[in-house]
Design a protein that fits this description.
about 160 residues, alpha/beta, about 40% helix
Length: about 160
């Protein structure tokens, strides 16, 4: 199993992901699953420029990731998979429950219809429901902004 962390973080690529999680886990490849970013070459270039030396990045749409997930997990590169939305992660976990067993809620920021669950996690009632459904299906869902931060159980966010 080479995908060590499945994270939802609407900022996608930033210091907490690259340094905070990437260094302690020895991440060599970032799997960024976002339909809009996959279609925007200039944004991909921007994200590539932020990577530390020795780390690769793969950009994929949700559909591409659904097909590639078993192959990615079988490859040797220590990887972190990040999505910008609950819906994208839920699609991956629903199709591939043998791979997506744990989901980390990172930065999910305020938008209309969302309420604060933690200072760094805002969820709509629908997003929370989707996460509860994932947990009921056997996926462990917790919030944790950085590795040294406290892990918060999904039930505490309700």
């Amino acid at each position: 199993m080479s995908i060590l962390l499945y994270r939802i973080d609407d900022r996608l690529v930033h210091g907490q992901v690259l340094i905070g999680w990437g260094q302690p886990l020895g991440i060599r490849r970032l799997l960024l699953v976002d339909d809009d970013i996959r279609a925007a070459e200039w944004e991909q270039d921007l994200y590539r420029s932020a990577l530390p030396q020795g780390m690769d990045i793969v950009f994929a749409t949700t559909e591409e990731a659904l097909d590639a997930l078993p192959r990615w997990d079988a490859e040797a590169a220590r990887s972190l998979l990040v999505t910008g939305s609950v819906a994208t992660m839920a699609a991956l976990a629903t199709r591939h429950p043998d791979f997506v067993r744990t989901v980390n809620l990172g930065g999910i920021h305020h938008q209309p219809g969302r309420s604060e669950r933690l200072p760094y996690v805002y969820l709509s009632p629908e997003e929370y429901h989707d996460l509860v459904q994932l947990q009921a299906a056997g996926v462990r869902v917790t919030a944790q902004d950085i590795p040294r931060g406290a892990e918060v159980a999904l039930r505490s966010l309700g």
